[in-house]
Structure formats: structure tokens, C-alpha cells
Design goal:
Blueprint: E1 2-9, E2 14-21, E3 25-29, H1 36-48, E4 52-57, H2 63-66, H3 69-76, E5 80-82, H4 87-96, E6 112-113, E7 119-122, E8 125-131, E9 140-144, E10 149-153, E11 156-157, E12 160-161, H5 171-180, E13 190-193, E14 199-200, H6 201-207
Parallel strand pairs: 3-4, 4-5, 5-6, 10-13
Antiparallel strand pairs: 1-2, 2-3, 7-8, 8-9, 9-10, 11-12, 13-14
Length: 217
């Protein structure tokens, strides 16, 4: 059985996720923990649950999703996985982090590149990787068929979509990717986004004002 724990970190109110199964092996997605108390909150949960963290994964590499990369790599001795197209996005964070008040940001290099033909495996769990660019050039999401869970980053939100006005973003690319990739998932798929509450594919197909049947934009 797959278990999910979410945290909301940093002033961007970013969602960090820990996925783990009954073997107690786990993966961490998008660690936004910057402050010491945020880092400790993540560590406390992992230690309380006696989890064995196997890897660190970024859905994409905007600042709010990578603030805790270096800490997680060091604390748990794990490798960082990103899509190759987002490597320049990750490298750029050091240049602008102080402008956002993160003068103590610590850069972490990726160890492996992942793409849509790869899988993420831990314990008894296998996650499919879907390539969904538009918000960021190397944005990927992760789908677990048996539990119907999708870790969606900043692609699809409850009633919204990821912004596309940042470097490397493209509005039409994101719309196409959501419709042609994410909307192929079963309607009862639970979408856990990078910000805000969980939603479902079915709800967004019907109601999302950008990509749903009632689209207004």
C-alpha cells in the first residue's frame, strides 16, 4: 500500500511530498524546506515513521521546489533526480535566490536525469513518469496506477494551472501537455499539486477554467 505525507513549506506555500509503502522505503519530492524548523519537521516525520529514504526527486526546478535539495541530499545520503531540460533552471536559482530573501540557499547538483520512459522504484512501488512541459521546460509528474496518485508539481491545480510567464514557460505547451498527457489518466486519479489542495483528473476535466469543458481562457 502506498502512503503519502504532505508538508507546506516556505513563503511560496509549496507542497513537499513523501511517498512510502509498507516496506518503509520512501522518496521525497520537491523539498521546499528552507528554514531549520521546516527541515526538522521533515526529519521528525521520517524518523517517527522509521522510513528509509531512497531518493530525492524534483518535478521541476523553480526555487520554491528546490530550497531543501542540499539539505535532503546531505541528511539522508540520497541522489537527486531531475529532467535534463530543467538543469539550467536549477543552476539559475543561485543567482536570484538572494533577491527572494533566500541568501542562505545552498546549491545541489543533480545526480541522474529522468525522462518519461523511465520508472521510479522503491520498496514494492513503481511510479510512471509523464513529461508535462510548459510551466518549466523539464517538468515531469509521477503516477502510481494502483493507488491512483499523481504527484503533479506545478502543472494542474484545483481550478487552475501552472503559470507560464517564467523563463522556459509556454502557455500553449502546458495546455497541450495537460490535455494530451495528464487527461489520459483515469478520472478518479488524485492529483497532488505543488501548491494548494488535492484535486482529481475528473473534476478538472469538467471544471478547470483553463483546460476543462468549461474553459474560459
Amino acid at each position: 500500500m502506498l502512503h503519502l505525507k504532505s508538508f507546506t513549506f516556505n513563503p511560496f506555500m509549496e507542497n513537499t511530498y513523501v511517498l512510502y509503502d509498507d516496506t518503509k522505503e520512501a522518496v521525497i519530492f520537491d523539498p521546499g524546506c528552507y528554514e531549520k524548523y521546516e527541515q526538522q519537521e521533515l526529519v521528525d516525520f521520517i524518523e517517527e515513521e522509521k522510513l528509509n529514504v531512497k531518493s530525492l526527486i524534483n518535478t521541476h526546478c523553480h526555487i520554491d521546489h528546490v530550497l531543501g535539495n542540499a539539505f535532503v541530499k546531505r541528511k539522508f545520503g540520497v541522489k537527486l533526480y531531475i529532467h535534463e531540460n530543467d538543469h539550467p533552471v536549477l543552476k539559475s536559482v543561485s543567482a536570484y535566490a538572494p533577491n527572494y530573501g533566500f541568501a542562505g540557499y545552498e546549491e545541489a547538483d543533480p545526480d541522474f536525469y529522468i525522462d518519461e520512459n523511465d520508472k521510479i522504484e522503491f520498496g514494492n512501488t513503481t511510479l510512471d513518469i509523464l513529461f508535462v512541459p510548459g510551466h518549466a521546460p523539464g517538468h515531469v509528474v509521477f503516477y502510481h496506477k494502483d493507488s491512483g496518485i499523481c504527484i503533479a508539481g506545478d502543472t494542474l491545480f484545483q481550478g487552475s494551472i501552472g503559470r507560464t510567464d517564467l523563463p522556459g514557460g509556454d502557455h500553449q505547451t502546458l495546455l497541450n501537455a495537460i490535455k494530451n498527457v495528464m487527461f489520459t489518466l483515469p478520472e478518479n486519479t488524485k492529483v497532488y499539486p505543488g501548491h494548494g489542495p488535492m484535486t482529481t483528473i475528473g473534476y478538472e476535466k469538467e471544471n478547470n477554467p483553463f483546460v476543462g469543458k468549461r474553459a474560459r481562457f
